[in-house]
Each structure stands twice: as C-alpha cells, then as structure tokens.
Amino acid sequence: MTPPSPTGDPDATLVLVPEPAGLDALADVAGVRALEYDPRGSSLPDGAEAATVVVVDNPHAETTLPLLGRLPRLRLVQNLSAGFDPWDGRVPDGVAISNARGAHGRATAELAVALLLATLRELPAFADAQARRAWEPRDGGSLAGARVLVLGAGDLGAHVSAMVAPFGATATLVGRTAREGVVTMDDVPALLPEQDAVVVVLPLTDATRRVVDATFLARMKDGAVLVNAGRGPLVDADALLAELHAGRLRAALDVTDPEPLPEDHPLWTAPGVLITPHVGGDVRGWQARQWAVAAEQVAAFARGERPDNLVAGELA
Amino acid sequence: MTPPSPTGDPDATLVLVPEPAGLDALADVAGVRALEYDPRGSSLPDGAEAATVVVVDNPHAETTLPLLGRLPRLRLVQNLSAGFDPWDGRVPDGVAISNARGAHGRATAELAVALLLATLRELPAFADAQARRAWEPRDGGSLAGARVLVLGAGDLGAHVSAMVAPFGATATLVGRTAREGVVTMDDVPALLPEQDAVVVVLPLTDATRRVVDATFLARMKDGAVLVNAGRGPLVDADALLAELHAGRLRAALDVTDPEPLPEDHPLWTAPGVLITPHVGGDVRGWQARQWAVAAEQVAAFARGERPDNLVAGELA
Q1: Which value does ipTM take for this structure?
Q2: What is the Cα–Cα distance from A183 to B257, expressed in whole angstroms?
Q3: Are the Cβ atoms of A162 and B163 closer than 8 angstroms?
Q4: Interior angle at CA B99, CA B95 and CA B100, nearest 5
Q5: What residues of chain B lie within 8 A of the CB of A117, using their CB?
Q6: Distance (Å, rounded) from C-alpha A251 to C-alpha A233?
Q7: Which of residues 138-197 of A touch B (CB under 8 A)?
Q8: Selected residue with higher pLDDT from B83 and A306
Q9: What is the pLDDT, as a whole number, of residue B9?
Q10: pLDDT tens, B230-269?
Q11: Which residues contact residue A5 at a Cβ distance below 8 angstroms, ignoring those fewer than 6 apart?
C-alpha cells in the first residue's frame, strides 16, 4: 500500500500537523513536507514514522502524548500556543519543544488590559443596570496615575506595559532576572502594597505554580484588582475567593483551575469577579497567526538552525 | 442684616460656586472671594449681586440659567464640564463661557477605549455566560490591525489616538481644519467603508448635531463598532437602532438622547449595544480635577487675563 503522498521533496523534513490549516501553512516552506494526523486519534497515518517534527495543540495533549513515543526520528515538538505546560517534561527524551510566542502575545495582552479597564470602569455593574433598563451612574476607578505590577516580563508583559502607558499608568515588570525596567519576585512583597492592579501573564512551571497565594493577596492593597491572563494554577483560587468575599479585592480571570470551570464552582458567583473562558488568544485571525509563527519555527529547523521559540530541550 | 462673609479681600473678584468643594478650591486663589449658591434654588444668597463669575454644573442648567439674569456684573460663566451645550447661546449678552477641558479628557477617552475593547473582545457575551455559569469560548475582534476613525481632534481625540496605538490600531482624527494627522468631515465618506470602529468625541453644536445620521451609518462596514462618548444628539438614534436590529453594526454608548434614557426606550434592549450612564468623566478624584481646572480659569480672569478654556464670547 502506498503511503499518502505529502507534497514536495521526499527527502524533505516530514512535519505532522493536527489540522488542514497546517498543510496550507507549510506548503511553501522550503525543505518541508507536511502530513496531517489526528491529534484525538489512537493511530498515526501511514508514513508518519519518518516525521522529525510534530505540531501539537494544547487541548489535545492527553491523546497526542502517547503518539509521540511511536515516532523514532522525532526531534522537535512545535506547539501552537505560547504556554507549553501540558508538554513540559512529558515528551520523549532528546525531543525539544518550541512554542508559538508572538502569535498570541498581543491578543492576550489586549484581553488583560480590556479586563482591567472593564473592572476599573465598572462595566459589569453598568451591563447589569442595562439589563434592568436602569440609568445608574457611579464613579469608577481609572488607569490614570495607577500603578500596575505585571508578573511576566516576556512578550506579553512588554505588550501590557506599552498598552497601559498612554492611559497614565505606570507598569513595573517582574521577570526571572533583574534588568532595566524589570524587577524580580524578591522585590514584589515590598512593591505590592502600592499597586492598584496586578496583571499575571506568567507561564505555568513548578516555580510559578500558586505564585499568587494567600500571602501575596494579603499584601495587595484594599480595592486593588487582580487580572490573571496566564494560567489558572498560578493563583490560589481558595485564597482569592476569601479576599473576594471579604470585598477587599476584585479580580478578572481569563484562566481558571480547572478549565472549563465547572458549573458549581464558587468562582462563577463570587462578588467582584469577571470571568472569561480562556479566550486571551482567541481573536479572529488567530489560527493564521499561530500557523505563521509555527511555520517560521519549522522553517528554521529545516534549515538546520535553532528555532527562535525553543523553550525546552536543545537540538543537538 | 449682614451678608454672609466670603473669605478674603472685599475688593476681590466675587465668584459664586454651586457646592462647598468650590469654596475649598478657590480659598487660595489670589484676588478671589468665593460665595456658595444653590444651583437648584430660586434665589441667590445675600451679596451675590456683586459676582462677576459664576461656576455652573450641567445637571442644574435649567434652574441655574434664570439666576444668571439677576447678576448685573456677571462677565464669566465657568462650567465644571468640558461640554457646555446647555449654556451655549443662553447666557446673558456679553457674558463669556469657559469650560473644564483637561479635567475629564483622559477619563472620557479611557472610557471610550474601554467600551471599544469590551465590545471587540465580546465581554458583554462573556458576562452573560458567567451569570449562567457557562464556559462558552468564542472568537472576538481585536484592535490589532484595526482602523479607528475618531470624530473630534481636540484633547479627547488625541488621547483616544494615543491609547489605541500600542494595541496595533491606526487612528485617523477628524477635526474642523485639516492639519498633520487630522482630516475634515469632507474626507469621512471616503474613509468610512474601511474603518473597523468610529469613536465620537465631538462637542454638541448646531454643526455637529446628528452628524452620525443614517447616511453616515450606512457607509460603515459590516460588523464595525460605533462608540459615542461625546453627546447623545450627535447620533441619530432611530437610524442606529435600525442598523443594530439588522445585526450590521454594534455600538457602545456612554451618552444618549434623552438622558437619563427612559426605561421604555428601545436602545436598552437593542442587539449588540452596550450602554453606560454618561460616566465618561466620572472616575474617583473627578471632583478635585474639575475644580483644579476651574480654579485655574478663575485665577486667570482675576488677574485680568483671558482664561485658556474660553469657549464662547470674549472678555472685553
């Protein structure tokens, strides 16, 4: 039986892609052949064993991971998201991971700032009044003169900082290494009591899990706003619930733990919280953007170069 | 009977203020005495007839206007808002008007951008899903790559333009006179079909009333967003309702006609509309900001100078 015929040079780098958009995105990449696989399936298509790269998608990690062990020549897992926590430490030995940093960064930063502005300017209360056809003015907060602590000093953090500046806010970025305009977690306890908002855009790792815990929240000032646009487990949900019910803090969460948030979870109805269903990167055109970034990484790999977005492992 | 004793030099400029905050704001202004009056009342306090300046507030225009005719020495009406339409052409002959431009500009621009982001990123739909405890992701629009037409090239328009730039949007300002970065209304029909959003931050005058009419709306492209943070009568509400019910446009309105919007008005429940109750300038600290601007204008008048914010009439 003849294997399905991927386009292009049979000596080219074989890349498995989880959706037809990947075939289009890689069609014009030099030295690359693309073959579609089913990321929810239990088997691989004929010819797949020659693959050196697999493009993966977070929502299908649990069904995709067992397939990776059956690819003897696999060297690179290219993720379609920036966050790669479902894959970290779980890919076969010697396989590197690159992510889609740059595809979603601005969209996710945009949602974080949209959620912060909506919370400060009381848009949920006005939407509620609108549903009751009630004209009920009330004063809101403002980014003007506000101090915003941004946990995460990468692509997302830099976008958030640039976006809040013209509103008159001052952002402080928190990263792993101190540098011009970036402080470290060691500086955060002293800074927290002065911040009007904290925006979390960190990746999830063992070092960042529950970084926003009860102690962190307790140091935030009365009336401050927490925005989580990173990953749900970065925040201790029980500790946050206690602060919300005390009326001391407000929050806007695009990510929760678990996801989807179960119907009976107390976060849905906690006072002062706005929840969106992990849509940070979900703007129209996102699929084209993530494939454009993935294609750049795959092209670099095919040329024998190190992909810019390598986040785990190394290519020997 | 002794008139109530305003503080300071009896030869100083007498300024009537509509609230106690005005007494504090003007206490340290050289050459000025302040006297409180009731802007909802039918009479003036003893000694008020010596006033050359009255500070006024839009919500009490209808009760304040009759009082102005009883002040023979009146030369300046200082408004606490930027919009001065309730006073325009209605103050006694020879009386000038200055406004509070600068006090609310950034706050109003902030709300306009917050409403635009909330609409693009589908926050009302997510708030509705949250109320039903439902995790319902959907793709939104984005300011990234968007074209935004800003009607109004003054303080507010400049703020809106600066605020949307880091999101990747390109703003075009529309003003009365063409200049670097500013086009005129003559250019708008050709530009409209390409715009993803139109933000209205114009003052209300005879020239701007219903500037957004059925013809204007019809030229906007499918799915575009109209934000009105100027004045309600700038937009033809019936024409907008038709476009909303056709599902062709979406809108976010901080101002309506009339205000408050009556409970039975069809705008409340039109599809794709987000309504806030004229709170553009209503951020905490707004009272201090508007009085700081008013005090600067009054101080200039007391020194015999032309207040920077003179918007109608001239001081001989």
Answers
A1: 0.78
A2: 49
A3: no
A4: 155
A5: 110, 113-114, 117-118
A6: 15
A7: 138-144, 159, 162-163, 165-168
A8: A306
A9: 63
A10: 999 999 999 999 999 999 999 999 999 999 999 999 999 9
A11: none
